[in-house]
Q: What sequence folds into this?
């Protein structure tokens, strides 16, 4: 007679890659979390963690720089009307004001998705959802971004055509873009500009490459999100529809990765 094994109680612990856990906790995007791990700043149960380590969110104690990290925080999604004179990185070596100074601390660990220059104003999304941040900052993410720019001169038809077809920025030719003059006087004009890329200072560099100084720049829309009449310096939570729209980009990203 085979011996009876009796009843065993098996506890299955769900393990998760440390960088995924950190991004889910809203600490940073997955890529940034990998850097933090490589810098030796992350411990699991008191031991410095290596990249690739797996953790159980239920039973392991994870900390960054000695500060405990929990992965069960509620995700928040905000839109800020960033004023000029604020930086979008979360810390600044020159101690300039950051966009986080405009958001109450009760919104745990939110950080900006993408960036707007110090001297650019307008629509900025902030969240503590690392997966969404990763999808929206991926180079393949091509949501339309709409800006209003005040230019120091009225562009010629030829310059407008060049802008639309692609501008050479030191060897990188920009993708087709939109530009439409919405207001003009003798020496300046306001233009509505639409781009699908997010290169550093792209709108300013495109205009300057064609010989036009940008006097003022404001982002008014990104995908289906509109700044509307949100006052300068104010923020609001995104609606469920807006969050759903943004999360649609996460799906697109995984489809693209599957296709290679
Ligand atoms: N293009 C710019 O030149 N600056 C921004 O902040 C955003 C887009």
A:
């Amino acid at each position: 007679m085979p011996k009876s094994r009796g009843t065993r109680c098996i506890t299955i612990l769900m393990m998760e890659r440390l960088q995924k856990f950190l991004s889910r906790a809203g600490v940073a995007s997955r890529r940034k979390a990998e850097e933090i791990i490589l810098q030796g700043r992350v411990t699991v149960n008191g031991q410095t963690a290596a990249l690739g380590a797996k953790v159980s969110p239920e039973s392991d104690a994870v900390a960054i720089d000695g500060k405990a990290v929990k992965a069960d925080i509620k995700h928040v999604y905000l839109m800020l009307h960033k004023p000029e004179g604020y930086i979008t990185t979360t810390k600044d070596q020159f101690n300039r004001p950051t966009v986080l100074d405009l958001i109450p601390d009760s919104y745990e660990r939110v950080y900006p998705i993408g960036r707007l220059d110090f001297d650019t104003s307008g629509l900025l999304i902030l969240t503590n959802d690392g997966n969404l941040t990763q999808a929206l900052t991926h180079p393949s993410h091509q949501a339309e971004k709409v800006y209003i720019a005040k230019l120091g001169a009225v562009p010629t038809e030829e310059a407008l055509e060049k802008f639309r077809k692609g501008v050479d920025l030191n060897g990188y030719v920009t993708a087709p873009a939109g530009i439409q003059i919405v207001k003009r006087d003798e020496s300046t004009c306001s233009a509505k500009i639409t781009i699908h890329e997010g290169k550093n200072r792209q709108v300013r560099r495109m205009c300057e490459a064609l010989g036009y100084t940008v006097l003022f720049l404001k982002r008014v829309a990104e995908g289906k999100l509109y700044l509307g009449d949100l006052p300068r310096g104010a923020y609001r939570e995104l609606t469920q529809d807006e969050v759903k729209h943004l999360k649609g980009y996460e799906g697109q990203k995984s489809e693209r990765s599957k296709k290679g």
About this structure: The chain has a mean pLDDT of 88.
